[in-house]
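Supplementary Note 3. Input sequence used for the single-chain structure prediction.
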Amino acid sequence: MKNLKKSFALILIVLICSSLDSLAQHGGGHGGGHVGRGGGQGGNHRNRGGVVIQNNRHPNKVIVRSAYRPNKIVVYHPYWGMKRNFNRRWVYFPRYNFYWDNWRNCYVYRNENVWITNTVPPPVIVNINIDNEKHYELKEQDDDIDDVYKTNDTHQTDYKPE
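The predicted structure, written as discrete structure tokens, is reproduced below.
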């Protein structure tokens, strides 16, 4: 019975992936996949709902990557720090406790008890040049985490403002 359930789940995933592939081939969906700062060039629509990767070492384990992961390795130069080079998705600013998302070009910050994702900077840094602020590029394992703020307590203790 367990094998039947696993087989059914795997078949369902394959069907979903193949339908996403057909959307990409026929021009369906909303724009291209995200590749770097180009804002949608690339034409790979599979990234819209996440990419399912078959794990050859553990065939019963399915890996789902973030829908925002670019198809190529990209070096990021955010508009607030054009001379900086980032290879990871998340940049954390411990002094003001907010994140910059290089994949989506937006800020993630706390407003009272709610975490907000916005292209507009948090109100606390409106008149501050954040290029001069201490920041940390989070680890590669955090790249596929879309809601990185859930581990904010760990980031606050691991990364100290100077």
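The chain has two helices and seven strands. Residues 2-65 form one domain.
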